[in-house]
Specification:
heterodimer, A: about 725 residues, mainly alpha, 5 helical Cullin repeat like, three-stranded mixed β-sheet, three-stranded antiparallel β-sheet, 31 helices, B: about 450 residues, mainly beta, four-stranded antiparallel β-sheet, about 40% strand
């Protein structure tokens, strides 16, 4: 039976397709939709995560992903529209707070919805190129809340109004501001930029444009800069408190443009308080503020630099061409140094030691120092003054400081060879008169010149020192050998100077008194005996003498005089009265020197050991001179100076200049020959440029002079003009 | 330590599991279990009774056990009664698929490889290329189709090119595959496209413009540069467009073109390889595509060929050693080549004059002429190991002298026409049966 039945058993085709409950998807979605509502209504505690997750999973698994996703979009949109209404309804100041609170709620809800729909997020979303749930939630918030037209403008206005109030000094709720801007940033950088940052920058620009206008009308430059700086710091602080860090560069550039760049020229040139006044009054703080603010804007530095340069050039020019200043070279140089110190300090303290500013300062000094062609002489005189007396009781370090400063000025000089000339003269005077205070200081100065200009520049100066030393040895040797024969005749101190090293003028020696002459002859014999093949000439115009004199009432004085003066005075040992002519004949002192010498002996009050008939200031050919019996002085030692201009007289100056020009000729020629030797053929302009670069460490050669030298070299057949191209020169070996 | 509130109880498909929140924390917040325990879902269950929470999950208990064990130990052990596909599905439910993948096989080592799977394809005998994806998936190109497999070796919708012959394929990333195709005469097709690996849709077509005109072309070998996101492909156009095209990976726009200089074969290249260290592209055009092999290094910044080698004039008879495949070694100092006798040879990139220095290993092996059905050998280098396919096996070489250390061979499938290493796996494609083998390194042993 049963077998029969089994045989009858027939496998039938499935009549009805296996079908899930047609309302399955709808039902499941209802559960999930309900859950989303509950989450938004803060009623999630009754929900089971496992159940919701499983339902969402099942929907995706059964290919209802699309329905789930679109349902989510609809439900969330509906909730956000409700939220939008409640935010719109918030009154006044509560608006932002409501927005912030709802944003917090939405984020929390979004997190929970995302948890439920995690499976969809992992599988359905990527393969169907949908937006992931979290991003979707942010986008919907953006579209339904932030971009709802009732909220969008109100939000922007509220934010800008709060910032405006804060700028005006009110205290606002920064925490709330931070949350709102953070929300805008979370919604994507484009939302933050379009819905807040761009209008914020526009409003700020107009605010600061107005404020800067107002400030500039009523503040001086320093105050204005202070205000601008404060505003800038406020904006940076604002960014750090509640804006996106990327906004900092943008808002500061707005402030910089409106408050600084737009008013830069006016600020710098502001009357009574602009840059020039700050420089004059050493307002380090203001200057430093200006530097720090202007560095932020294009052209800022160049503006400051240009104004500073022209100010420096102007004041410097006034200083160097002021005829009053030219009377006192020491003061002149001291003022230059003070000016340099002052501006160095400004650059150091206020301008952050900026290299470009230092360069501007240097070029300005270079410009105006060379405007006055006596600058080299004055600088040398300044050193002379310092080394003669100025450095007494000053430590070695201080000496170095002074000399270093002088070297700084020296560097600005174009005519360094002129300086060398004068320095040599002044050094010679110092050495011969024994006026130099410190040998170390002298040597240190020479070392500085050597490092600056090379061996050649200082070799003669060093030669002068050597001469001084060997002279000392010679004198010791002389007295040691002659000791027995000397007796009580006058003591002689001879300085043997190498011709060429010293700036000596050829002069005919005067007639020395017999007492002196005999000692001199002894020395000559001794010197030529030890050094054969040399020639000695006496430079009587450069010597000094100490002589003892007894006057009318028997008082004795020791007179410190020059050799010329000594010769004159010795004549009065035998005569009481001598005419000018007689003196001139007896001594053979050149007329100009004699006049000066007599002037100093007879016409200076308190030192008039001679009396002149008639009494007058100037010496005439027919004057007569008497021994002044009535001479008195409270000092035993009396120094009778020669009337010499400390500065050079006009003709002397002229002469020095000519000598400098003369000295330059061989140097220029040597440079031309050096250049042509290596280049063989060169055109005129190139020679001029090369010669200038070679020589500019010593002086700036004049192109006309160079041309003359070239012509002279052509005459002497060192060079020839090219046959074809007359502009070319050819070196003839 | 695990005090009361740390304990969690699950009832999964009727079975009770107890674990700790610490164990579950390793699943991460963006997994189902992580969300389940998150505070926002547990407001009503203040775990006051010391038993922690109790959760019901309506899922398969055996898989839950496996996955819970994975979270506890980081190791994956699948009992024989749990099919892999079932486990993967459950892992996807819990959001733990990445954990499973990471525990599935260990870091790649050519000497420890074991066969993990064999996947049979549908079309026999015409395999063009196999490429490993970055996550352990692969794609197989044959004819006008590219079959795509994910790391679970599930086949996705294939990329179909409407009868255009596929020349080369490459993974740009897990989601994107670049395919180069041959142009058919009379149709403006061919070229190069970017496809979605999960759906097989065309996402982007790469263009070649010559004199501001878009040209149709045949794209050949592919290479990607890691450092500056470029795609290189050899291009053969109708008239002038012979050379190497360069595209930006992010924008898909053509950024450069290296026109074929005289004496260098670029447009037909068999192999391109970007060398990160020297910023050069190696181009190899080899026998039998051309009678005279050419290998060169291109510098795109100066548009110059900085190194090249050719066997023009060297080879005279068919029995001579012909270079059949070439790769630049990872140190960027030499190029490794292989010939029809499966000899390895090396060329020094630092000198331009040297020829191929053939390794002596060939003399030790029985030199037999290749069987009729055999495939040309291929080479690959990976983390200091050198791989060479020879008939039906892959040889692994190690050390400074490149000593043979392992041989990978399956018993069936015929000779290997291509293989590829990536995602810590090695894929070998057999030509006869169009079957590919997957080799992987087992996870590290229990005791180190």
């Amino acid at each position: 039976m049963s077998a029969q039945k089994k045989r009858n058993f027939k496998i039938e085709a499935f009549k009805h397709r296996v079908e899930v409950d047609p309302k399955y998807a709808e039902k499941t979605w209802k559960i999930l939709e309900h859950a989303i509502h509950e989450i938004y209504n803060h009623n999630a505690s009754g929900l089971s995560f496992e159940e919701l997750y499983r339902n969402a999973y099942n929907m995706v698994l059964h290919k209802y992903g699309e329905k789930l996703y679109s349902g989510l979009v609809t439900t969330m949109t509906w909730h956000l529209k409700e939220i939008a209404k409640s935010i719109e309804a918030a009154q006044g100041g509560l608006f932002l707070e409501e927005l912030n609170r709802k944003w917090g709620d939405h984020n929390k809800a979004l997190q929970m919805i995302r948890d439920i729909l995690m499976y969809m997020d992992r599988t359905f979303v990527p393969s169907n190129h949908k937006t992931p749930v979290h991003e979707l939630g942010l986008n919907l918030w953006r579209d339904n809340i932030i971009h709802s037209h009732k909220i969008q403008t109100r939000l922007l206005d509220t934010l800008l109004d709060l910032i405006h109030r804060e700028r005006k000094g009110e205290v606002i709720n920064r925490g709330l501001m931070r949350n709102i801007t953070k929300m805008l940033m979370d919604l994507g950088s484009s939302v933050y930029q379009e819905d807040f940052e761009r209008p914020f920058l526009e409003v700020s620009a107009s605010f600061y444009s107005g404020e800067s206008q107002q400030f500039i009308e009523c503040c001086d430059c320093g105050d204005y800069l202070k205000k601008a700086e404060r505003r800038l710091n406020e904006e940076m602080e604002r960014v750090s408190h509640y804006l996106d860090a990327k906004s900092e560069a943008k808002i500061t550039s707005v402030v910089e443009k409106e408050m600084i760049a737009n008013h830069m020229q006016r600020l710098v040139h502001m009357e009574n308080s602009g840059l020039v006044n700050m420089l004059v009054d050493d307002k380090y703080e203001d200057l430093s503020r200006m530097y720090n603010l202007f560095r932020r804007v294009p052209e800022g530095f160049s503006t400051i630099r240009d104004v500073m340069t022209s100010h420096l050039r102007e004041t410097g020019k006034q200083l160097v061409i002021d005829p009053d200043r030219l009377r006192d070279p020491v003061d002149f140089v001291q003022r230059l140094l003070d000016m340099k110190d002052k501006h160095d300090k400004i650059i150091n303290v206020a301008f952050n030691n900026d290299k470009t500013f230092q360069n501007a300062l240097n070029s300005s000094f270079e410009y105006f120092i060379n405007l006055n062609n006596r600058s080299p002489e004055f600088i040398s005189l300044y050193v002379d003054d310092k080394l003669r007396k100025g450095l007494k009781g000053v430590t070695e370090e201080d000496v170095e400081v002074v000399l270093d400063k002088v070297m700084m000025l020296f560097r600005y000089l174009q005519e360094k060879d002129v300086f060398e000339k004068y320095y040599k003269q002044h050094l010679a005077k110092r050495l011969l008169s024994g006026k130099t205070v410190s040998d170390d200081a002298e040597r240190s100065m020479i070392v500085k010149l050597k490092t600056e200009c090379g061996y050649q520049f200082t070799s003669k100066l060093e030669g002068m020192f050597t001469d001084m030393r060997t002279s000392q040895d010679t004198m010791q040797g002389f007295y040691a050998s002659q000791y027995s024969e000397m007796g009580d005749g006058p003591t002689l101190a001879v300085q043997v100077l190498t011709t060429g090293s010293w700036p000596t003028q050829p002069s005919t020696p005067c007639n020395l008194p017999a007492e002196i002459l005999s000692v001199c002859e002894k020395f000559r014999a001794y010197y030529l005996g030890t050094h054969t093949g040399r020639r000695l000439t006496w430079q009587t115009n450069m010597g000094t003498a100490d002589i003892k004199a007894t006057f009318g009432k028997g008082q004795k004085h020791e007179l410190n005089v020059s050799t010329y003066q000594m010769c004159v005075l010795m004549l009065f040992n035998s005569e009481d009265c001598l005419s000018y002519k007689e003196i001139e004949q007896a001594t053979e002192i050149p007329a100009s020197d004699l006049k000066r010498c007599l002037q100093s002996l007879a016409c200076v009050k308190g030192k008039n050991v001679l009396r002149k008939e008639p009494m007058s200031k100037d010496i005439a050919e027919d004057d007569a001179f008497y021994f002044n019996d009535k001479f008195t002085s409270k000092f035993i030692k009396v120094k009778i100076g020669t009337v010499v201009a400390q500065k050079e007289s006009e003709p002397e100056k002229h002469e020095t200049r000519q000598r400098v020009e003369e000295d330059r000729k061989p140097q220029i020629e040597a440079a031309i020959v050096r250049i042509m030797k290596s280049r063989r053929v060169l055109d005129h302009n190139s020679i001029v440029t090369e010669v200038t670069t070679q020589l500019q460490s010593r002086f700036l050669p004049n192109p006309v002079v160079i041309k003359k030298r070239i012509e002279s070299l052509i005459e002497r057949e060192f060079l020839e003009r090219d046959k074809a191209d007359r502009k070319l020169y050819r070196y003839l070996a | 330590m695990a005090n009361g509130s740390d304990r969690v109880r699950f009832i999964v498909g009727g079975k009770i599991f107890e674990t700790t929140t610490t164990t579950l924390a390793s699943a991460g917040r963006h997994s189902m279990l992580g969300a389940l325990l998150d505070d926002s879902w547990n407001l009503r269950q203040p775990a006051a009774d010391g038993g922690g929470g109790e959760y019901f999950i309506d899922r398969n208990p055996s898989c839950f056990a496996v996955l819970l064990d994975l979270l506890r130990t980081g190791e994956l052990h699948v009992p024989p009664n749990v099919p892999e596909r079932l486990l993967y599905r459950e892992a996807l439910f819990y959001g733990l698929l990445d954990h499973v993948r990471a525990a599935r096989w260990g870091p790649f080592d050519g000497n420890l490889l074991r066969p993990a799977a064999s996947v049979a394809g549908r079309a026999p005998g015409d395999g063009t290329a196999i490429r490993a994806g970055p996550d352990g998936g692969c794609c197989v190109a044959h004819g006008s189709m590219v079959h795509v497999y994910d790391w679970m070796l599930e086949e996705h919708r294939p990329i179909s090119l409407d009868y255009q012959q596929v020349n080369d394929v490459g993974y740009l990333d897990t989601q994107s595959i670049v395919v180069t195709a041959r142009e058919r005469l009379g149709k403006g097709d061919g070229g190069m496209g970017l496809f979605c690996s999960s759906t097989g849709e065309l996402r982007h077509r790469f263009r070649v413009a010559h004199g501001n005109q878009v040209k149709s072309f045949t794209a050949g070998a592919l290479s990607f540069s890691g450092s500056d996101d470029k795609i290189f492909s050899s291009c053969r156009g109708r008239c002038n467009e012979y050379g190497i095209g360069v595209w930006d990976q992010n924008t898909g726009q053509q950024v450069d073109f290296f026109y074929e200089p005289p004496g260098c074969l670029l447009g037909d290249a068999d192999k391109l390889q970007w060398l990160d260290g020297s910023n050069c592209l190696m181009v190899a055009t080899l026998f039998p595509r051309t009678d005279n092999c050419f290998i060169g290094l291109l510098d795109f910044r100066e548009k110059s060929v900085v190194w090249s080698w050719s066997d023009a004039g060297i080879t005279t008879s068919l029995d001579e050693k012909r270079v059949l495949h070439a790769i630049a070694m990872e140190d960027g100092r030499s190029i490794c080549v292989v010939n029809q006798y499966d000899d390895l040879g090396f060329m020094d990139l630092r000198s331009n004059a040297g020829g191929v220095r053939w390794s002596s290993r060939s003399r030790l092996m029985n030199r037999k002429l290749p069987a009729e059905e055999s495939c040309y050998p291929k080479l690959a280098a990976h983390e200091g190991q050198l791989f060479s396919s020879m008939n039906d096996s892959i040889l692994v070489f190690c050390g400074p002298e490149w000593v043979l250390t392992s041989t990978l061979r399956r018993s069936y499938g015929g000779s290997i026409c291509d293989f590829s290493i990536g995602g810590d796996r090695l894929f070998a494609l057999h030509s006869d049966e169009n079957v590919f083998d997957v080799w992987e390194t087992p996870p590290s042993p229990i005791i180190y």
